[in-house]
């Protein structure tokens, strides 16, 4: 259904979404290039940051280009296969974001609370394993949703009150077996919402406790600065994401879902590079080096 039927708003929406998409892709690419070209940034923290940038680019590319095309061709129709494909990719990259943010919280916990053993524990093999586990959990989440979505043969209304095939709204199209649908939604909310958030909160509880015991004020300031960027992204991502998913279980929630989805799917991936680069001296230094090398 998109944002509006007003034809005068379509060029504005097109320009706005295209600009946000290009900024997001360019910002995440710059982070990846900066980390790749600066050997000082070849650490677990920046390895996971690069992985998050790749996931963010995939996440925003799943929804925005298709919506831009639909504005251009003046058609919002999406095929059944196209809808399931978009939904699957959206879940995969979105869950990757969630898992990587959890892994990054664990990485900060190890760096601050166990600094002497950090490089031994967070070795390349462990980092690769954590990345593969994040992908595995994302794949399982996708299959759970597809398992229910593929059973949809009857629809009460073939319209989706959003600008893409939002998984929570697609499942609500079913006019039968609502019990299974609710079970899957609640199960996924607990597995991929409460557990990761609990892990992040526990990690930061231990981190804050450890920081407060540091004798040096400069050390405390550096530790808080390192964690501040990650916490900003966590609150932005989880706040909007869980609000949308849980809100879809409530009646008459479609009014605000489109605007909330825009924050979740477009604004968050666009802001992530700015949050990490503007608050991180190493990234800014690496970007300057990369720029000077090109010139």
Short description:
This protein has 295 residues and is mainly alpha-helical. The protein has helices spanning 10-37, 44-73, 80-113, 118-121, 124-149, 167-171, 178-212, 217-247, 254-278, 281-294.
How does this structure look, described?
With 295 residues, the chain is mainly alpha-helical. The chain has a single domain (10-294), classed as Rhodopsin 7-helix transmembrane proteins (Rhopdopsin 7-helix transmembrane proteins), CATH 1.20.1070. Helices cover 79% and strands 0% of the residues. It contains ten helices and no strands. The protein has helices spanning 10-37, 44-73, 80-113, 118-121, 124-149, 167-171, 178-212, 217-247, 254-278, 281-294. Helix 1 packs parallel to helix 9 (254-278) and helix 8 (217-247) runs antiparallel to helix 9. The longest helix is centred in the middle third of the chain and has 35 residues, at 178-212. It is globular and about 60 Å long. The termini are far apart. The model has no long low-confidence stretch (mean pLDDT 81).
Question: How many H/I helical runs?
Answer: 10
Averaging pLDDT over every residue, what do you get? 81
Question: How many discrete structural domains?
Answer: 1
**Span of the ends, CA to CA:** 46 Å
Low-confidence stretches: none
CATH H level, superfamily name: Rhodopsin 7-helix transmembrane proteins
């Amino acid at each position: 259904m998109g944002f509006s039927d007003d034809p005068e708003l379509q060029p504005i929406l097109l320009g706005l979404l295209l600009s946000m998409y290009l900024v997001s892709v360019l910002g995440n690419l710059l982070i990846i290039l900066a980390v790749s070209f600066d050997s000082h940034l070849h650490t677990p923290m920046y390895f996971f940051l690069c992985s998050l940038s790749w996931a963010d680019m995939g996440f925003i590319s799943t929804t925005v280009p298709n919506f831009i095309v639909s504005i251009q061709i003046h058609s919002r129709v999406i095929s059944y296969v196209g809808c399931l494909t978009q939904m699957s990719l959206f879940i995969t990259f979105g869950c990757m974001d969630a898992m990587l943010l959890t892994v990054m919280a664990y990485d900060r916990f190890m760096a601050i609370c166990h600094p002497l053993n950090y490089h031994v524990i967070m070795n390349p093999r462990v980092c690769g394993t954590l990345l593969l586990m994040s992908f595995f959990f994302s794949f399982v989440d996708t299959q759970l949703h597809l398992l229910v979505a593929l059973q949809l043969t009857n629809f009460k209304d073939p319209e989706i009150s959003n600008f893409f095939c939002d998984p929570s709204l697609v499942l609500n199209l079913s006019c039968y077996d609502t019990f299974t649908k609710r079970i899957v939604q609640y199960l996924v909310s607990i597995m991929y919402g409460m557990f990761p958030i609990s892990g992040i909160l526990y990690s930061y509880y231990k981190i804050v406790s450890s920081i407060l015991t540091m004798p040096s004020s400069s050390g405390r300031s550096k530790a808080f600065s390192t964690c501040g960027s990650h916490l900003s992204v966590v609150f932005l991502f989880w706040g909007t994401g869980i609000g949308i998913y849980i809100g879809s279980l409530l009646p008459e929630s479609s009014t605000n879902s489109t605007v909330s989805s825009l924050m979740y799917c477009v604004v968050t991936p666009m802001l992530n590079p700015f949050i990490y680069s503007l608050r991180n001296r190493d990234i800014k230094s690496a970007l300057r080096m990369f720029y000077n090398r090109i010139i």
